[in-house]
Specification:
The structure holds two protein chains of two kinds.
Chain A lengths: L8 H15 L4 E2 L2 H4 L20 E3 L4 H14 L3 E4 L18 E4 L6 E5 L4 E4 L5 H10 L4 E2 L10 H6 L8 H4 L5 E7 L5 E3 L33 E8 L1 E2 L3 E9 L4 H14 L7 E3 L9 H7 L3 H14 L5 E9 L1 H15 L6 E9 L4 H4 L21 H6 L3 E5 L1 E3 L3 H18 L19 E2 L2 E5 L4 H20 L3 E2 L7 H7 L2 H17 L15 H7 L1
Chain B lengths: L7 E2 L28 E5 L3 H12 L4 E4 L4 H14 L4 E5 L1 H10 L5 E13 L8 E11 L4
Classes of the chains: A alpha+beta, B alpha/beta.
The complex binds flavin-adenine dinucleotide.
């Protein structure tokens, strides 16, 4: 049995016995075949000394049991790492930042407390997955839409606590922004509620997120300040209609006007999530185009654009999604065409028109999450072409935030593509790369770095490149919004304004709130005092 | 993907008492020693369909999947697993195995056997591709 760092065997044995008293023998896991289930399936350090392993796992069923476990951990100084469903693939899976931690697995706490389809909110426990919440809503015929990430198996709470994202309207698809109030077990075992939950008798927990006083909720996202045991979320009312149209523009520079116009639509609430892409995608791997792309960036960009125009393919596309009353979605689409029609050569096509309730077969072949339908299609071979063709075993996401404009997209294309070329590695980006738009007010220039279960040398190369790009991005003012544990210290080091005051302030809070440093040590690059030098 | 070529047997799977009823030795699930309550086959491959048919003839309920596990999971397995864990075997591409293997631990089940069965070609309309198929067993943790 592995022992957590900084604790002796007899104390750990005593703590485990107390965990068993609190949650029952069946729900404390110490055997290898159980603890290995908490390894990160997509770990970029698999089978290397740096791989993060856990010593044990404890799965409480309710908040009282969580309190008992936390009190015991605090008494013995046992590092614990709360997870909700623990499927944070690409960003660390179930694995903690500190090897040897005990995972506090909250999957059994899977009760939907309330869904209100008149005020449009839900209150849920951490083990509630998107599938669970969807089923609860469907079974009761409630008229609300959930906003879910591509994999529907994740936790509504866990995803939001890592600043996870979905695919509908801006304020709903940023899942932490969409939250309203939490219940948290603090490192000393006390229960705290935030927002209106802090006011005994208030019935507005799911309505108003701030309550009164400092808004401390952010400390519990990407942080090690407590164990979240309930959260409220705003939900979108089920709209009447959905329309998806696609716009194509012919020139590389068109991204500047296109993003400005799409922002104009989105920030007024006219569209949901816009999806940028390039019609060149299916051609990029052809010998002709890949030869073009192997040249220095400026030349590659010029030739690619000429080739795209010669073949009348268009250079960028953006899908616009409209939700709302039948009449409104139609006229909003007309307005979008009028606005974007100012770009010479822009073309428009209506792709899909649907009305709620949407039957399962109507959604077939569509991006279901944009319609609020959770699914697992993303894992089907062929869905992520790049991953499949390269034979990856998984990926780690590189997810830098860049400004939400075309100038930043053009710059990021060049900076990252050149970096790959200089490193002599196949590039994940090119002169027509487009950003992800999950964030309401920023772009993410996402790349999936392949990880292997067996090829240690390949993983090392990918990690080096990831680190290089993160450093390079930071020089341009781009920082990751979320990252796997082994990169969290690095990424936090980039958020360095005024001699790292953000990190130092967080450490001061950490020392005050969690003096024994038991909760999620190292999460978000914030280590407890006794481990700080170690991580420096 | 060298690791996939090695048979993975965890715990004491092979020592458990009940064998898959009616399965020929070498058939998926046959060596795991647990009573299989469902056979999952990948309907993109003729070989997997044939194994599914064999399993069906023994009276085991069968489910065809095409790599997207949503319907099988949401309409069927998630409801059953919530009531009680169950053992299932399959012959599928890696995607189905990965998804079910990731979902299983929340219901106190895990992959207890995983073997690369061989390379197979997808059937039906384009694109045709060759992929490794895996023969696997997922079983309740307390039965291994
Ligand atoms: C192919 C693919 C596609 C993906 N698509 C998306 C996508 O569209 N959108 C997206 O956001 N992500 C996506 N991801 C990333 C990830 O899989 C999801 O975000 C997933 O929902 C996160 O896992 P989870 O919900 O189980 O959260 P968990 O793993 O349970 O939680 C995440 C982290 O939050 C903290 N935490 C969790 N619960 C608690 C708690 N109760 N108290 C305190 N701290 C807690 C922990 O640090 C934990 O590690 C994708 C990954 C892959 C591989």
């Amino acid at each position: 049995m592995a022992i957590p760092p900084g604790i002796n065997e007899s104390d750990f044995t005593a703590a485990l016995a107390e965990f068993e008293n609190a949650v029952g023998k069946d729900w404390v896991f110490t055997r290898d075949e159980d603890t290995r289930l908490y390894r990160d399936a997509f770990s970029p350090v698999q089978n290397e000394p740096e791989e993060i392993l856990v010593s044990a796992a404890v799965a409480p069923d309710n908040v009282e049991e969580v309190q008992a476990v936390v009190r015991t951990a605090n008494r013995y100084g046992v590092p614990i790492y709360p997870i909700s469903t623990g499927r944070n693939l690409g960003y660390g899976g179930s694995a903690p930042n500190l090897s040897g931690s005990v995972v506090l697995d909250l999957k059994r706490m899977n009760r939907v407390i309330e869904v209100d389809d008149k005020r449009h909110f839900a209150i849920v426990e951490p083990g509630v997955s998107y599938f669970d919440l969807y089923r609860y809503i469907q079974d009761r015929n409630l008229k609300v839409l959930i906003d879910c990430p591509d994999p529907g198996w994740g936790s509504v709470v866990g995803n939001s606590l890592d600043h996870g994202v979905g695919y509908t309207w801006g304020l709903y698809r940023d899942h932490f922004i969409a939250h309203s109030g939490m219940e948290v077990v603090l490192p000393n075992g006390e229960i705290m509620r935030t927002g209106m939950g802090a006011l005994p008798g208030a019935e507005s927990w799911g309505d108003y997120r701030y309550g009164f006083g400092p808004h401390v909720d952010g400390l519990f996202s990407q942080g090690g300040f407590g164990v979240v045991t309930k959260m409220g979320f705003h939900l979108m009312p089920e709209p009447e209609a959905y329309l998806k149209g696609i716009v194509t523009v012919p020139a590389r520079q068109d991204i500047v006007d296109l993003t400005a116009m799409v922002n104009q639509l989105e920030h007024q609430g006219i569209i949901g999530m816009p999806n940028y892409n390039t019609p060149l995608a299916p051609h990029l791997a052809t010998p002709e185009v890949s030869a073009m792309l192997s040249q220095p960036f400026a030349q590659a960009a010029q030739e690619l654009e000429r080739w795209a125009q010669g073949n009348e393919l268009g250079y960028y596309s953006v899908e616009l999604q409209f939700y709302g009353p039948r009449e409104t979605v139609q006229s909003n689409w007309r307005y979008a065409q009028r606005l974007i029609g100012d770009i010479p050569g822009a073309t428009f096509e209506t792709l899909h028109e649907l009305e709620w309730p949407i039957a399962a077969d109507e959604a077939e072949g569509l991006h279901k999450v944009a319609l609020g339908i959770p699914n697992l299609e993303i894992f089907r071979l062929g869905t992520r072409q790049s991953a499949d063709t390269l034979g990856w075993d998984g990926e780690m996401w590189f997810a830098p935030i860049i400004p939400k404009n075309g100038e930043a997209v053009l710059e990021a294309q060049e900076v990252f593509t050149e970096a790959f070329r200089e490193a002599g590695m196949p590039s994940f980006t090119h002169p027509a790369s487009t950003p992800q738009t999950w964030m309401y007010r920023a772009f993410v220039f996402l790349m999936g770095f392949p990880v292997s279960k067996v090829d240690v040398a390949a993983n090392q190369r990918q990690r080096e490149m990831f680190t290089h790009l993160a450093n390079l991005g930071a020089e341009h003012g781009w920082g990751e919004y979320r990252t796997p544990p082994i990169f969290q210290d690095l990424v936090m080091s980039h958020y360095s304004f005024n001699d790292h005051v953000l990190r130092r302030f967080s450490e001061t809070l950490k020392d005050a709130v969690d003096p024994n440093g038991i909760i999620s040590a190292g999460r978000g690059g914030i280590w407890p005092r006794h481990l700080r030098d170690r991580s420096a | 993907m060298m690791d996939r070529r090695t048979v993975l047997k965890l715990g004491a799977a092979a020592s458990a008492a009940t064998l898959l009823p009616g399965f020929a030795v070498g058939a998926p699930g046959a060596g795991s020693g647990v009573r299989i309550e469902r056979f999952v086959f990948d309907e993109r491959f003729a070989e997997a369909i044939a194994k599914g048919r064999d399993a069906g003839e023994t009276g085991i309920p069968i489910s065809g999947v095409d790599g997207d596990l949503t319907r099988l999971w949401y309409d069927d397995l998630s409801l059953r697993w919530q009531r009680k864990p169950m053992a299932l075997a399959g012959l599928t591409a890696e995607d189905a195995l990965f998804v079910l293997g990731t979902l299983a631990p929340a219901y106190r089940m895990r992959v207890v056997e995983e073997t690369e069965w061989g390379i197979a070609r997808t059937i039906g309309p384009t694109p045709v591709s060759e992929l490794p198929l895996y023969s696997w067993v997922i079983a309740p943790a307390d039965r291994v």
